[in-house]
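Re: weekly structure request thread

Next one in the queue (213 aa):
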Amino acid sequence: MSNYPKIEEIILRLNSDELLKEIIYIVGGTVPYLVTKTISNREHSDIDIIVEEKNMDIVREYLKKNKLYEEKYDSKEFNYNKDKIDYGIDCNINGITVNFAPFIITDNCMIQRNFLNKQSSGINALVTVTIQNIELKDCILEFYINQVHLKTYNLEMIKLMKEKSNKPKDLIDIKIIDNYGYDREKYEKLKNKTNNMKFKIFPKSRVLRLFFR
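Done, posted below.
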């Protein structure tokens, strides 16, 4: 059986909290099901959330207040993150990994940071993604579930990200979006913007850094 009901319950709980509501944006594989109000039949291993960098201290406050904070999952505490730049934080809620990743938008440029870990990605690394000529309103959707206000990536943005990843689970999610329908004009505009996404990867391993210059 899918764990989606648990996933949705966690998302609604986070978006109902006085500290977090209005500052978090749900992204990733849960979005197509939230938007279409469809019960997912696949397993979801995590919840991906982006947060404006200026609000990341509020996220850490929430995690500490609710005894969810663990220093080993805080990118600012990684020993290879010498400059202590914020690349996000993970926590575990009812067995589900929840990732909070910071972003900033300046001069129509979106800069999002996150980290990879060896357990899920085969590599420990800090990651920076840059998208030019984009505004937050271009890729965000707002709606309600059970009177809880949610802000997520729109379906067009999710479809593009899923197409770039192209894993078996992504094909399932893309089909949900295609069947529900999406704005093709908006999709094409976002596709043009995201085609020139720039990735910068800084591995923990000094040897691997030679391959990611």
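The CA atoms of residues 26 and 152 lie 4 Å apart. The radius of gyration is 17 Å.
Next request, please.
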